[in-house]
Design brief:
- It is a single chain.
- This protein has 70 residues and is mainly beta.
- 0% of the residues lie in helices and 50% in strands.
- The chain has no helices and seven strands.
- The chain has a five-stranded mixed β-sheet, with no helix packed on it. The chain has a two-stranded antiparallel ribbon with strand order 2-5.
- β6 and β7 form a beta hairpin.
- The radius of gyration is 11 Å and the shape is globular.
Length: 70
């Protein structure tokens, strides 16, 4: 997983699309953040330290990745 130390995480999409929703889940499966993917990097300063799963979805694609907030 990608480490995030400064309160933000940068997520690069493998496709171009303007209508991407981002959902961040903790390891217990609870959704802790949902937003339209309109900025990079994404502010995660309000999340606790730990490992998170990110789901990015648009009408045609879905991508799932992880990051670690230190």
């Amino acid at each position: 997983p990608n480490p995030a130390e400064n309160g933000s995480v940068s997520i690069k999409l493998p496709w171009r699309h303007n209508d991407v929703m981002m959902h961040i889940f903790n390891l217990q499966g609870k959704r802790v953040l949902s937003k339209q993917m309109d900025t990079d990097p994404v502010d995660i300063s309000n999340l606790e330290k730990g490992i998170y799963v990110v789901k990015l979805a648009c009408s045609e694609n879905v991508m799932i990745t992880k990051f670690v907030k230190e």
